[in-house]
Amino acid sequence: MSRLGDLIRTERIRQKLTPKQVAKKCGVSESYLLAVEAGTRIIADDQARRILKSIGLKQQNEAEFTMDDIAATVDLAQVQPRMAAAVQAKKPVKKEAELAASTEDDEGVAGSVWLDALQSVLKRVPVMNAVMKPVSYQLVPVENGRIEGANPDKVFFYLAPDDSMRGFRIHKGDIVLTVPANSPVDGAIMLMTYNEHRYLRKIKLLDDRNVLLQSYDRQYEAETVPINEIGFIARCVKVTFELT
């Protein structure tokens, strides 16, 4: 089953709709819809959006990503048990008379229910520029409530402002995933402030008072600096780059 097909089928079942009902809503045949759910038919983006819209997954939610973005990035087979629990927990107990009139009311909340369910597995992490202002966002998996062992709210990407670290495989424009660290980590590449500027540098501990700040643009450079003169911000754990 494809991720898009899994998304459509899961939401259709959650709303207790038959394939025939959904197919009629979005103007396709029942066999066509079942093939999409099974992942045996590739469909255009506009058709996918039309089907998603027909089952109520049409709006951008408060995290500013769409349901089709989620379908493209989340392995829903692993997420489903948690989603089902989240949906059940949020669903109020209704009397029989209310159930008959509930279909119309449910359409507007599907996106927020999905977002709440997915917050435990995805985090919208900011990409910060050299002055620590967000310029974009990346969706990052959350495992056991953590990202790379850190609080998801404290993690961010840093946009490399220059080529001073390209000898260490970080080029200008690359985005570096960082986790909080306010003390030097031997052998790590870290984001820090020094002399009123912000830098990415590789750290070598010399003793309990001094570190070697290493960079490598066209040639290797190193500077010995007292630890108490540096403001350590974060440790770099991953780098992402664009293929051009």
Question: Which helices and strands occur, and which strands form pairs?
Answer:
Layout: H1 3-14, H2 19-26, H3 30-38, H4 45-54, H5 67-73, H6 76-90, H7 96-99, H8 102-106, H9 110-118, E1 122-128, E2 134-141, E3 156-159, E4 175-180, E5 189-194, E6 197-205, E7 210-216, E8 220-226, E9 231-240
Parallel strand pairs: 1-3
Antiparallel strand pairs: 1-2, 3-4, 4-9, 5-6, 5-9, 6-7, 7-8
Short précis:
The protein is 32% helix and 26% strand.
Task: Explain how this protein is built.
It is a single chain. By secondary structure, the protein is of the alpha+beta class. The chain is built from 9 helices and 9 strands. It has a 9-stranded mixed sheet with strand order 2-1-3-4-9-5-6-7-8, with no helix packed on it. Helix 2 packs across helix 3. The radius of gyration is 24 Å and the shape is elongated.
Q: Give the uncertain stretches in residue-range form.
A: 59-65, 70-76, 94-113
Radius of gyration, taken over Cα atoms and rounded to an integer in Å: 24 Å
- Quote the beta fraction: 25-35%
List how many beta strands DSSP finds: 9
Strands of the largest sheet, in order across it?
A: 2-1-3-4-9-5-6-7-8
Principal-axis shape equals elongated
Our count of helices gives: 9
| Average pLDDT level | 78
Q: What is the straight-line distance between the termini? A: 32 Å
The helical percent reads 25-40%
Largest sheet data: 9 strands, mixed
Broad structural category: alpha+beta
> SSE order in H/E notation?
HHHHHHHHHEEEEEEEEE
Oligomer: single chain
